[in-house]
Amino acid sequence: MSNALLEVRNLKKYFNTSAGLLHAVDDVSFSLQAGSTLGIVGESGCGKSTLGSTVLFLNEPTGGEILFHGDDITKMKKREFHRIRPRMQMIFQDPYSSLNGRMSVHQLIAEPLIVNKICHSKQEISQRVAQMMDTVGLASRLANAYPHELDGGRRQRIGIARALILEPEFVVCDEPVSALDVSIQAQILNLLMDLQDSMHLTYLFITHDLSVVRHISQEIMVMYLGQCMEKAPADELFTNPMHPYTQALLAAIPVPSADSRHKRRELLQGEVSSPVNPKPGCRFAARCPHVSAECCSGSIPLTEVKPGHFVSCLHCR
Amino acid sequence: MNPVLEVKNLSVIYKTDMETVYAVNDISFSLEKGKTLGLVGETGAGKTTTALSILGLLPERTGQITSGRIVFEDAVLNELSRRELERIRGHRISMIFQDPMTALNPVLTVGDQIAEALELHNEEHLNKWAIEKKVEETLEMVGIPKERKNEYPHQFSGGMRQRVVIAIALVCNPGLLIADEPTTALDVTIQAQILTMICDLQRKYGTSVIMITHDLGVVAETCDQVAIVYAGEIVEYGSLLDIFGGGSHHPYTEGLFGSIPSLTGHAKRLQPIEGLLPDPTDLPAGCKFSPRCKYCTQLCRQKQPPIREQNGHQIRCHYTPDSRTITADAGTARKEDLE
Ligand SMILES: Nc1ncnc2c1ncn2[C@@H]1O[C@H](COP(=O)(O)OP(=O)(O)OP(=O)(O)O)[C@@H](O)[C@H]1O
Ligand SMILES: Nc1ncnc2c1ncn2[C@@H]1O[C@H](COP(=O)(O)OP(=O)(O)O)[C@@H](O)[C@H]1O
Ligand code: SF4
Ligand SMILES: [Mg+2]
Ligand SMILES: [Mg+2]
């Protein structure tokens, strides 16, 4: 696909730890069309945030390519990279810890403009900040407030404003609503979807919440121990999950409806194993109900079993 | 049947030099033997405060029960001395907290911690050997191999720590278990394991459970009765079917359901509740939900709504779905947001 906004090929990010080499992201590939959303789901520690920050080159990848409009940013010269940096931004889970508490709302939203030397006149900055505050639903009377005076929802609006004031094309949203109460979460999800339409944004949306990921994504990738287990269009993944891990994940979601009481289900046994020096074969083998000897030997390729539906499992062909 | 627990008109404040937080405002509910009551609400609704009041664990300096009675089996808990309460706590009433690390002692092995709970309330006069045996049984009951009893909490994952906490909470076979967001910090596959385990043990021992959560899915899977809590009040109360069925609901309950993305349907736009939770030091007069309610009227802003009850299904609102209309001058929080 040549017209992809972003194409990630065989991306790897390993960390050296005292216990050995930690495979946080291990050979992940995907491509993203402009204006669409790819959701990344998986349990804690499966490498979602590492994937997000590596795609933005906040972490240097151990291997692989990241093509932004066809150019590999891992091979770019510094100057060239700095030119495209503003076009790729990130929204974090807890805006509080990523916001400087001594800066006012206005200063926080203006900062990216100043750091990236995008605006020079005070007047232009003020105007753009005021406009952005309006866009993300922050009342203008809050311009001089400090983050600690605001609730989580408003702090997240600041985080969104900071990411969007540079008018990026691509935004990694790392659990942007996970710390929020449901009624506030819904406000922020609506805002993110409206902004995607009006600013033609492309999202990599990271979350562990399966109902959120279905709601916001066109396509979903399920990760387990640094690898992609399954990738499919959102509705297809939910109606026809093929990988045993995806099936277990979907079965584990508590459903808010009257007939859920005492629902019996197949429980996934055990817990996620260590990402340090992983064994060859399928990463999910230790917990998989369908595991066979074959699963534990060679590497398992991600195979397209239906148009657009990719599965990494020997028993789903 | 006599309820195991009855909370009547409970009000709790936190009072400091600076301000008074009205955390729980006139909450009443009762819980029957072997049943599960869900307390659902967003952060700051007063769920944990309610639990701490039952256990007599409110912070001593600031927390204060200003009215109400808490009756557990044959005892009025809020009239007991600290020593009497301590005897009930951990023995006849247990609690599981959201963060298992706060409940575990980092310098004791998990086996020793379970043994400690047993020794503290050793009514069967078990000897050392019998206690050791019971510790091993308990660990296996929560799915941890008994060989791991000599390990420390930090050697366990979050899910395993929560299992240990549950083991400690249940080892004395309490009549009442209060679980405060027991799975909020866990992954869904581990959450499913833990919830299934709590329900299985509850059925086996006939334990009554208060399940505190903000997750309507967790409620649907575990509870018999549900109380929706907002700003320290129960705004709706009923059976699982009352709350999750298609009948009439409190506007806040409707807002909560409108806020959760659907797992089955197509991506509709979410219908969030506008505005924010009210300031608990300065609660609105009249209906506490009125600043955010799209049906709010003059009456709502002035007068505390009554509880309407139909076959045990209670809703605290001036109106029914038939008698209310979306009002132009609705809640102040809504306008402030648009400003
Ligand atoms: N800087 C680092 N050094 C060493 N290991 C790291 C580093 N950052 C992440 N890891 C490890 O990489 C793995 C993936 O972590 P990551 O934070 O990407 O997971 P995640 O899917 O975002 O989890 P969560 O849902 O908990 O946010 C984990 O095992 C983590 O401990
Ligand atoms: N120790 C405390 N001192 C002062 N205020 C408190 C304290 N604990 C809780 N509160 C306040 O009481 C209200 C209810 O809190 P809590 O019972 O923890 O709610 P929930 O468990 O539903 O999130 C909140 O406004 C909270 O800020
Ligand atoms: S009493 Fe009025 S403001 Fe309160 S929930 Fe009912 S309609 Fe809304
Ligand atoms: Mg993360
Ligand atoms: Mg709480």
Provide an overview of this structure.
- The complex is a heterodimer of chains A (317) and B (339).
- In chain A, helix 4 (105-115) packs across helix 5 (122-135), helix 5 crosses helix 6 (152-164) and helix 6 runs parallel beside helix 7 (182-199).
- The radius of gyration of chain A is 21 Å and the shape is globular.
- Chain A contains ten helices and twelve strands.
- Chain A is 31% helix and 23% strand.
- Chain B has twelve helices and twelve strands.
- In chain B, the strands form two sheets. In chain B, strands 6-7-8-3-9-10-12-11 form an eight-stranded mixed sheet, sandwiched between helices.
- In chain B, a hairpin with a 2-residue loop joins strand 9 (225-230) and strand 10.
- The longest helix of chain B has 18 residues, at 188-205.
- Mean pLDDT of chain B is 90; it is low at 334-339.
- At the A-B interface, helix 7, helix 8 and helix 10 of A face helix 6, helix 7, helix 8, helix 9 and helix 10 of B.
- One magnesium ion (MG) binds at residues 47-48, 180 of chain B.
Quick description:
The complex is a heterodimer of chains A (317) and B (339). Chain A has 317 residues and is α/β, with parallel strands linked by helices. Chain A has helices spanning 48-55, 78-84, 95-98, 105-115, 122-135, 152-164, 182-199, 210-216, 234-239, 244-252; strands at residues 6-17, 20-32, 37-41, 63-68, 71-72, 88-91, 170-174, 202-206, 219-224, 227-233, 303-306, 309-311.
